[in-house]
């Protein structure tokens, strides 16, 4: 049974028993725009990014459950083909908690699924030659094999991606002075990418006329091989993430608080064929202001990532994008939490 189906079942139970349970509902959104000059320097191809999420947590005595659903968008504009490329990814996870008697400590296990909309590319720069169906293309390749039907003869490449993860967490509330809570976790992620292009038929047939066709001093086949080698690898690989986070609150005035939430993670890629240098860790700092009433909390905050979204948005990392993960990244966000 998929996590989406489990979430629907659990939500129906929550709705029928909402007033008999304790917990909260949290709705939030973060956003980044290239035009925001006050944000950390980002790659030239970046245009915009945003994440919307809904989180529901309920508990009764020593048992709790959390549901989270989010949508991640990343828009790119480049000088070479594909000149525009969007990533839309959807995450659903479910987390099971065991809490101690006063709910100050908990151990939890979460299961997550993330999938992206297929990316269709009509033209692609294979080194110094544009192949595809756009007006700028020097060459268009169509293959009548059934497996290429989804390209509709107008697209040259289709890329798909998804991942599944399991995460173990330990959380402690009010552990030390000036420290509202801290969290330790370890996460295991299985990454699955795939791509489809009729251009690969040339690469697989090295004795063909097209493979050995000379183009600007090089074989067309060599140009294609080099370009295909930086597409996401088709073999699954695992990401292992170990991390810790803390959260502190400082009262500024009546119901207004300043909060600081740093998170550090260490990432190991197992079975991944890297092309360029990739980070071994990442640091995220989330900080802002929260207006807290008895049942309602409203937060305005900023987020800073030292190494882009590495280890936080797994769907965004593969061979095509890995060279961007030594760059900083930042976003602004808002949250509304209702406590019941």
How does this model look, in words?
This protein has four helices and 17 strands. With 340 residues, the protein is mostly beta strands. The chain has a twelve-stranded antiparallel beta barrel. The mean pLDDT is 92. The protein has a single domain (3-339), classed as Autotransporter beta-domain (Lipocalin), CATH 2.40.128. A hairpin with a 2-residue loop joins strand 13 and strand 14.
Task: Annotate the secondary structure layout.
Layout: H1 3-17, E1 22-33, E2 46-60, E3 63-77, E4 84-99, E5 105-116, E6 119-121, E7 123-126, E8 129-132, E9 157-176, E10 179-196, H2 200-204, H3 209-212, E11 214-215, E12 218-219, H4 220-228, E13 237-253, E14 256-270, E15 281-292, E16 296-305, E17 329-339
Antiparallel strand pairs: 1-2, 1-17, 2-3, 3-4, 4-5, 5-9, 6-9, 7-8, 9-10, 10-13, 11-12, 13-14, 14-15, 15-16, 16-17
Features:
340 residues; mainly beta; Lipocalin; twelve-stranded antiparallel barrel; two-stranded antiparallel sheet; 4 helices; elongated
Give a brief rundown of this model.
The chain has 340 residues and is mainly β. The protein has a single domain, classed as Lipocalin (Beta Barrel).
Please count the beta strands (DSSP E, at least 2 residues each): 17
Strand order of the largest sheet: 1-2-3-4-5-9-10-13-14-15-16-17
Gap between N and C termini, in Å?
A: 29 Å
Within CATH, the superfamily carries the name Autotransporter beta-domain
Percent of residues in helices? under 10%
